[in-house]
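Trying the structure run again after the queue cleared.
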Amino acid sequence: MKRNWGVAAAASCIVFIFLIPLFGALYTSLRTDEAIASGPFVWQFDSNWTHYKNALGAAGYDFPSFFRNSIIISLGTVVLTILVSFPASYAIVRLGFGGPWLLRLALALRITPAIFFVIPFYKLFTAYNLIDTPLALILANSFINMTLALLVFAGAIREMPLEIEEAAAVDGASIWMTLRRIILPLMGPGLAAVGVLTFLFSWSDYLFAVVLTSSEATPVTVGAANFVTSYGVRWGDISAAVCLSILPPLVFATAAQKYLVKGLSSGAVKG
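Done. Tokens:
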């Protein structure tokens, strides 16, 4: 019992330390500019919502469009990643396509720094006039996240009893019918894990966004730089934008939390 209390206390301390930046951003977003200028350690809670109004467009920022771009890019990446990696992982595990080396290659690509792919992506998307479009970021983020999705899906499919698929084949079901009507309903945790992680990684992407966009498809991660003006850094507005930008991934991850844990433990760990 004492050991459990010790572990819980240590975990709580670690979580609190990681949440300090978030608490700091929330605190700063609710202070006036004068209070912020007085110092970060001066306690003066004003409950001022001016910075949130500024971030949402009152001060001329285009944050709502940045927010919309991030949602489009992240959801598009989730859909494309699942549509490609799910049947691909089934082909690798059940049909023997590519062999075990293909999953090892996916793992190698996963641990390769993303900056390695920036110049090839830039040249490719420039040739097809895709620079500064949501499609460019959807394709780039899908490429990066597809490797993790393959590993999670492959691990989950390996755990499924082969007898279920054999029974479906005896009943005359095709591969696509088996995949859609039998495997897919059983892949709920794996799908949730891939969807949540892909959404989070796409939402927080900065490298591809800063290179492949300029104005039309700018997401929130890059758009926050607009709060740095020639007159100074608008710390209150930046903090408000940060607090607003974490709401979609927070809601998304909370809604699929139980499936996320189960999907990672059954797929990513054993896959």
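Strands lie at 228-229, 232-233. Worth checking whether this holds up in the mutant runs.
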